[in-house]
Amino acid sequence: MSEVIVVGAGFAGLAAAAHLAAGGAKVRVVERHEQPGGRARTWSKDGFMFDLGPSWYWMPDVFERYFERFGYRVDELYELRRLDPSYRVVWPGGDAWDIPAGLDALRELFEHHEPGAGEAFDEFIDQTSYIYREAFDDYLFRPSLSFFEFVDPRLVTELFRLKMVRSMSNYARSFFEHPRLARLVEWPVLFLGASAEKTSAMYSLMSYADMALGTWYPMGGMHRIIEAMVRVAEEQGVQFEFGRPVNQIVVEGGRARGVRTPEGTLRADAVLASADYHHVERDLLAAEHRQFGDKYWSKRTMSPSSLLFYLGLGGDLGELGHHTLFFDEDLDRHMDAVYERPRWPDAPLFYACAPSVTDPSVAPEGDSNLFLLIPLAAGLSDSETMRERLYHQVMQRLEDHVGQPLRERVVVKRSYAMEDFEQDYGAFKGNAYGMANTLRQTGPLKPPLRSKTVGGLYFAGQLTVPGPGMPPSLISGELSAKVLLDELRGR
Ligand SMILES: Cc1cc2nc3c(=O)[nH]c(=O)nc-3n(C[C@H](O)[C@H](O)[C@H](O)COP(=O)(O)OP(=O)(O)OC[C@H]3O[C@@H](n4cnc5c(N)ncnc54)[C@H](O)[C@@H]3O)c2cc1C
């Protein structure tokens, strides 16, 4: 039986490990932190339980497909609730729209704000459902090892027919004149790490995921997914070593032969590294074994970093819903500060997540759990003073929105930003969620799943295909494991 070491126990590492073990390999996962989950770990204090990273459960079909492969339905592993409203958007001037769940209610909302937009919405959903299905049934699951995998005249013809050979921003405005309706359908591509102007309309599949497939929440918190993935992996025979950082990948005769850790060397027939690609190449491999130099990395568009606040508050949050997007300041100005001319934004956009609205188990009885996220440029110099300045700015707007003071009721507070991402994950420029899915960084143009310089060394995770987010990271683990299993079986 071949032995494989998987570095990292986030979505990608867990998915890779379970698939490798199911394919007959003896698998050991080596993780630097004391708990699994990576960016989806948890932090608890004084009865509050915070999910450190992801909070939007989208594309439920990806998770269903994953767990089915190991003999489970999702409802046998955790309880999913569909949120309705899916989320709230606060616009300039302070008025707010609740975005309802379900296509009929959404159609009504669009028609209400722009006569004729209901029909345009139907057409938008029709087109984006096509691209979502193509991705789900095929493209997302291509390992992208060569350009020829992506040369598909049928898809290219379809993209031209659907007028998707343009930016997401442009595509959204071809359906809706009302600027807020256009914003509503384009914002989901922000999950892919670049602005709607820089992202291909092909990724409108994210809008379909939002509007047609819905926003869900696993009761108990997002880490319930991680617990389920660990359980499935263990049932396949995967062994875990937590609290064990990998310092080096051992390469002998041009092949990966194991990993070096402070407690000693672990040997294997192959290594699958799911830690950040840049960290693995720069910090865990000797210079002669790297595929990419500093010049390559300096030209990549990383996803933004984020300033996060984990807050425990005494009492409730008034009318605040589970997810609220504060688009009440100038979005273009904020995007400029994140992508074009990196700087601390003067009037930041932000996102507030209050899971205790849906799930009382994440806070002491009667209290509230609040997570705030402010996108910042990757590579921005971190500063405690700036963290605090932004905290008070966004809390003021939140207090204005809910109509009551909140800061005086904060009993637990932790902030997290660039320096923390670097320290916890070796994240290049302190990025939060990998490399942006721009056109120049899609499919075979991303760093590959299989090393071109070291035999038996494979990669997975949000810096390789298909891209950032829980579902893509999970898929990348599966893809990398399949390519590695093929090699082990001599194909
Ligand atoms: C703040 C935030 C909000 C997000 N929101 C959402 C959301 O709402 N919905 C969504 O779908 N996605 C969201 N994402 C993105 C999603 O969380 C990530 O894309 C996904 O979790 C990445 O998984 P991964 O396995 O690729 O990487 P990681 O989770 O980073 O896993 C890599 C693992 O490798 C370990 N590791 C690193 N170096 C070493 C080493 N030297 N030795 C041993 N182990 C090592 C790390 O500790 C980590 O456990 C968010 C991300 C962040 C940061």
- Strand order, largest beta sheet: 7-6-15-16-17-14-18
Number of strand elements: 19
CATH architecture of the largest domain: 3-Layer(bba) Sandwich
CATH superfamily of the largest domain: FAD/NAD(P)-binding domain
- Ligand catalogue: flavin-adenine dinucleotide
- Uncertain parts: none
* Helix residue percentage: 25-40%
Strand content: 15-25%
The value of Rg in angstroms is 22 Å
Shape call? globular
The biggest beta sheet reads:
7 strands, mixed
CATH topology of the largest domain: FAD/NAD(P)-binding domain
Domain count, please report it. Answer: 3
Ends: how far apart? 16 Å
The average pLDDT is 96
Q: Given the structure, what is the number of helices?
A: 15
Structural class designation: alpha/beta
Report the top-level CATH class of the largest domain: Alpha Beta
